[in-house]
Structure formats: C-alpha cells, structure tokens
Design brief:
31% helix, 4 helices, five-stranded mixed beta sheet, alpha+beta, 5 strands, 25% strand, globular
C-alpha cells in the first residue's frame, strides 16, 4: 500500500485527534477521552499560533495511518530553541514499514527550516508494554538516551 507524509491541514482535525486518542489509549492501556480543547490546540498549531507542526501519514485514498507533532521549546541553558516530538503514532497495521521514520524525517526537515539543531522526543513510561521497541526505534534513527523526564501536576487551587 502506498502512502505519503505531509503537513496537516485544518481539515485533518478529526483524524488527527482520533490518532492522538489512539496513541494515548495504547500508552495507558485503557480507553482515553481527550479534552474538548484538544481540537483548539490542533488548530492553533496549524495556524502557527503555537510554534510547532503536525505531520500526517496517509494512504493514497486519504486514510490517516500515522501522525507526529513537534513543538519548538525555548530553554535558557541551551541558549535558545530546540524541537520536541511530543506525539508520534503509527497505526498498528502499518508499523515496521518505515512510516515512523518517514514522519521523523519530516520533523527533521521542519527543524532545518527553523534552524533547530537539537531534536528531542518524550518516551513513554518504562512500564509501557512496548517501551523497549519504542526506545530501539528511536535509537535506530539516530536518537541518543537523554535520561528520564518527571512530571508534576500543578494545583490550580490558589488556597
């Protein structure tokens, strides 16, 4: 089956949101509902209100089979910007067909266009059933281990 990778358009919203929902469901091992604002975030990226991009992989008949989101981050200790792949998903029936690597190549081209020399990716939690496969995939396409990330939810209660 033939496929292409291209930048997402406004009209791809529903397909991309469903792909990201599928990614989150797979990572968490249970059905996930994305917040309503997810569509607004997608549209803000496409409109360049949020610095980044969304790329999709689709079959020649228009079925979405993969997507990647990349965001530009500013950091003082690096003295400027870098790119962060936040989400990368390939439909299970299309994995191991170089689709993920093609999506990352599109992200790399985005980096070159924006003079971003550093590209990072968020790995899933080590308890994710396919963590080792995910880590090996990124290693095969040139990523190096960069240590774990930690997360804290900030309370919105001002008390």
């Amino acid at each position: 089956m033939d496929w292409i990778v291209r930048p997402a358009r406004h009209t791809d919203e529903h397909k991309v949101i469903e792909a990201i929902r599928s990614l989150c469901t797979e990572l968490r091992g249970k059905d996930v509902k994305l917040p309503e604002i997810a569509a607004d975030v997608f549209q803000s990226i496409i409109s360049n209100t949020i610095p980044g991009a969304v790329f999709i992989a689709e079959t020649t008949d228009g079925n979405l089979i993969g997507c990647a989101t990349v965001f530009i981050q500013e950091v003082i200790f690096r003295g400027g910007s870098y790119a962060l792949i936040q989400e990368l998903w390939v439909h299970p029936s299309h994995r191991s067909l170089s689709l993920g690597a093609a999506l990352v190549r599109s992200v790399e081209e985005f980096c070159r266009e924006h003079s971003l020399k550093r590209l990072k990716v968020c790995l899933p939690h080590e308890s994710f059933v396919n963590f080792n496969k995910t880590q090996k995939f990124y290693g095969r396409i040139g990523f190096a281990d960069n240590g774990p990330y930690m997360t804290k939810m900030v309370s919105m209660d001002l008390k």
